[in-house]
Amino acid sequence: MNEPLLEFDDLTIEYETRNGAITAVSDASFAIHRGEYFGLAGESGCGKSTAAKSLLNILDDNGQISSGAIRYKGEELQNKSEKYMTEHIYWNEVSYIPQSSMDSLDPLKKISRQAVEIAQTHTDMTKQESLEKFKEMFEIVGIQENRIDDYPHEFSGGMQQRAIIALALFLEPSLIVADEPTTALDVIMQDQIFKYLDRIKETTDVSMILITHDISVIFESCDSLAIMHSGQIAETASCRDLFDTPRHPYSILLQQAFPDVDHPDRELQTIDGYPPQLGEDVDFCTFADRCPWAVSECRDAAPPLERIEDSETGRDHYAACIRTEEVRRSYEGDATPAEVDNDI
Amino acid sequence: MTSEALLETQGLKKYFNSGKSLKNWLLREEEESVQAVDDVNLRVEPGESIGVIGESGCGKTTLLRTLMGLYDPTEGDIVYDGKKMSDFTKSDWKAYRRNIQIIFQDPFNAANPKMKVKAYLKEPLNLHGIPNKEEKIRETLKQVELRPPDRYLNRYPGELSGGELQRIGIARALVTDPDVILADEPVSMLDVSTQAAVLKLLSRIQDEYDVSMIYISHDLSTVSYVCDTINVMYLGRIVEEAETKTLLDSPKHPYSQALINAIPRPNPYSDRERTQMEGSPRDPVGLDTGCRFRDRCPERMPICEQKPKFVDASDPDAQEHGVACHLYYEHEEAEQAMGDQQIIGGGN
Amino acid sequence: MAGLSMRYFLKRTVETVFLILFVLTFLFFFFRLMPGDISDQLIFSGASPETVAQFERRWGLNQPLHVQYYRYMVNLLQGDAGISLQYRQPVIELIQRGVFNSLILVGPAITAGYIIGSVFGVVAGTKRGSITEKYGITSLFFIGTFPSFFTAIVLIAIFASYFGWVPTGGLVSSEVRRLYSGGNWWRMYFTADFLHHYILPFSAITLRYTYLPALVMRTNVVEVVKQGFTEYQKVTGLPKTKRMFNIAKHASLPVITLYPASLAQGFGGLVLVETVFNWPGIGYTLVQAVFASDYPVLQFIFFIVATFIIIANFVVDIVYGWIDPRVQIDE
User: Fold this and answer.
1) How far apart are CA A229 and CA C122, in angstroms?
2) Cβ–Cβ of A187/B280 closer than 8 Å?
């Protein structure tokens, strides 16, 4: 596979607070390819939203990228000015579906007007052409065309979300950043939306980075994913590889914590402890205090992302754990971590 | 279901009047009401846990609030321990409030930020004049796995995590030794890893304390973990009721089927098909008596203009399984009558 | 821009008309029912009962109230607001110049105050912690705590007395007044002389009314910037000026609802400002009429002021509904 579309290379993001610096993302690295849907999974506070926002340069005022690079189509983005982003990146190349779409549409403007404004900022389309294009988008997301002249408050929550998705697809970007796009929606509506997202994947070359805590959604709708824990990338792989051969303890435990309607009797896995509060330097594994396989070395240095060789899908598989071998034996052999530790 | 129900609703209805506008008055129109809960029959036995599943707007929150006594029913009854709520005396109400407790959805909002945990748990004990408060509080904190209790007694809500706060919420519900706990989406605001722990706790408490639970949620996967029986609710009505496993294995109502099919599976090899459902539930305003799902139902028939009866549709050798759907019972007389009258099918 | 529904507009218009009628009726009965009317005054100054009765008959004051009311309304529609009891002149003639002079002072001054304050507020809100915010808002606040007449005196002391740049009072100088007496009296409002006389009273009122919109606008701008659509508009690549304009539009909504209230307040303080500047508005006339219980005059002045504010409210309602279509639901 040639050059990835988007690359996060050892990215560290910090927030300045009154009590000192807090690290939100620590040495994160992963890559997304053209035409790929990529999931960024993790629990609240793990840094997934922050990572996405850094790509779009919409971090909060007190946040900044302290080291590392974000490469989009080979070009480094982290130091680019707002002007550059507006001219080259925003919406034409990368569009955004924010977490609470209800707040994103300007309540004082008709939706059609907002679409036309966006189109005319980035392209040469006339007003008529923009409206025609936008109507097509509404058809794709299943809203009646004549409703483009409505105000946002005249739409239900689910429709607003779909309108936002329509706006995100509108100028045919190369990458869509979707931050919990369906979390506030009912399950049937969520499925309706992913039906459209599936269709778009089949018919165009667009890539998507889908940020969510719901790993089921990622498994069903994405090609690959990265799992984050407290600012660190725990594991990144294709969905099938991560499901078949997870190597990071967190990946294993997290999957087991999700209830599955197909197996309602299955015992749910609980994970002890809480993600740690991070200060300035994160030179340890943030999962160590919660991990059944942890040893003292885990707290000495941040584990580097190591290549895992046995990938069936041909997609790179990395895990940040110094004990992947023991974890593998335990997981595949059904031995408990303690038994593995005491093994020869 | 032969034993005496601990808490049940009989034909419960809760309608809200949206208020007559000037136009209504001038045109002498009937004001449209929001039919949030329509003819709901629910029952929970001692030690049983039932779930009420539904998407937003289905009326489950209204149902909960009516059970709590916050709303007066428009029609129908709530019966606790054999006595109708409409006949409650003052002491009946006191007993009700002591024995029916609630766990709220948002742990951060439910607790009073200015109250220490100790005071927060003491409050219901003071209200109901329950003795041995210190001991009870400690005991309950241990039950919700906040050990040692002393670590938590003097903390403020702001100092605790979501999972801890939710446990405090559960503790507060437990401290009066209730008969029934009403749980309103108790884990929806928690992270997955905390969710699992709290769900297990609820399961355990239910067993150990012999407390009944009515668990309300939109998330079928978490409800299935805790509840023995599940009721599926759509636009104010219960459309299906069955034991959890039975419902998940063979849902009968078209809505239940769509709902279960639409849940994502944690499996990349899942070959689940995306939903065929279009649109979303309409507003529960100005609805007629016919089936409320018919505008979206793939199995719609002309008879669906009539209100479906709640019938037993259990498979042979399976547990009782109730559905409110015309597909599951005979309609000879009705069809004959319809044929005679040439009723127009279609249209809402 | 946004959309205004005809229904909303018509509804508001009808409501406004009813309100004006109500105010008129209320004022009519209010003054007539108050103790201490002109008949009592006449008796007090020594007139005989017969004189008083004659007086009352002449002015139709002995008729039942509802008859008087009916006649009043009919006359009003024909442009006759009654006769002043003091001056025996038609009320409208008596006060028309005064009303005009007051309105052209209060209206533009408070409007200017709101515009300046709003701009200030937007700048302060978007550049938190800047000099504009810290010192600007504080200064405006400081000035705004003083009543307009006090600010007026200070301004006169500095700019009129000390620097002598502008006259200390009056509408226009006597030469200009002589020049433009008669038919083209209105031309004198277009002279530089008038402007010289205008600027100080105008500023006194404006300064007083800048701080409230500035403060409210700043708070709103900060609130609006926090809202989701601000971030969204940045990410969709909308140019900065457009984004600022959108923010201002949102933030201005609560500010414009305060505008009629400030107008009402401004009228309240008008009498004193006019006194300080010797400005021939209705302030003086009003005070005189109160002492003389000259209720045709009083009633009509109150009515004019009330109508002015009602109409200002109406305009604000319409503008608000135009900008923010959400308020038009349920209409």
Assistant:
1) 41
2) no
